[in-house]
Amino acid sequence: MVPGRVARHRRHPCSALVATLAAALAATLLVAAPADAANRRISLSDYRWSEPEVHIDLGEHVTWYWVGPDLMHSITGDSDNARRWDSDPETNQPHHDLGFDYTVGFDQPGVYEFRCKLHSNVRGEVVVSGDPGDPASEPDPVPRIQLDLTPPRLNVMTKKRFAAGRRGMAVTYALSEPAAIDVEYWRYERRGGRTVRRYAGWTSWRGRIGYNDARLGAAASRFRPRPGRYLAELWAADAANNNAGVQRVRFAIRGR
Prior knowledge:
The chain has one helix and 16 strands. It is mainly beta. The model is unreliable at about 1-35 (pLDDT under 50).
């Protein structure tokens, strides 16, 4: 560099043209590009919002869905600019049907904070930009219901039909999921020349997924085995209290 001379960088004419076109294209895209935000659908489940921070543009809306299993929640404005909205204005003990929804539209930019009036940790905020939105935009898919309605499958397999005294009869059963097993015992007795069935007690235990071994007719706190013929009715209930169809096993207790 010659002392005292300002350094200049030569720009090739083609490079200048490309740069100019690129800048013009970028400006066009910025003007023509649609807003990134859109109407939103948010689920309330497991004591939280599916998205605790929701972004939309002016004129768009947010719809909250109660999808379970917990349904005792509200969408209640917490910040000053959101206090006009409340999904449950007439109660402090909200409880909704499965699939209930609540929609709020926003026509002013800002950050709007909401919480559940019963569970303050169930909260979130809606961030509304200053950009014009699209009120007719296609929102997210409707959130799926989060309630387990499928009962467990219980299959009882026995090799013998008699139990030896208080030890009971060995059985194997299969479960499609972990479940509580309840067993009711009925004893057959002769009354007035006919056979009747009398309630004899019950017992319960936890079963795991897959094959399990147990003993039917074994002594338990609520069942005292005596010699005779019995009917055992087995029920399986999962964590959501879905019940499998009853399985019945007839057997006899021998000896003492």
